[in-house]
Amino acid sequence: EWIEHAVASYLNRRVETNAYRADGSIFPVELGLSRINREGAPIYVGFIRDITERLATERDMRKLSMAVKQSSDWIVITDSIGTIEYANDTVCALTGYSREELIGKNPRLWKSGMHDEAFYRALWDTALSGQNYTALFTNRKKTGELIHLDTTISPVRDPAGAILQLL
Description:
alpha+beta; 9 strands; 5 helices; 4-stranded antiparallel beta sheet
């Protein structure tokens, strides 16, 4: 009877539920059940995985995502060559561009003509060397109007230290 229930509920699926430790405390787990045939007889293989850490990480990521999205600060994330991967609501409100209009573009679309090549060369040299670059930027909105931003561009590194993105 238990096998019939387990097969109906868990076979070839992953289910999240709670389990009990020896001390009686509850913790979240992921359950799964697979069936293989050996010499014509079914063999059931199950797993129980503690997902406490994964769920905590997911909660933290949701908090971080909401904080970035709702921040009143200008937050743009580009890849290491400058392609925009993310822009928060503040960027959209300040520039007049929708997120969809920004993703995949280069920040040059905000270029105002107020900074010379040396300014941008210093920005890239500094950020790609792994250091923060802080400056007063004069950018151009979608309407053509100028906006002034005191901004820091920071490198984001992978665990090995390679620069993946600029923030």
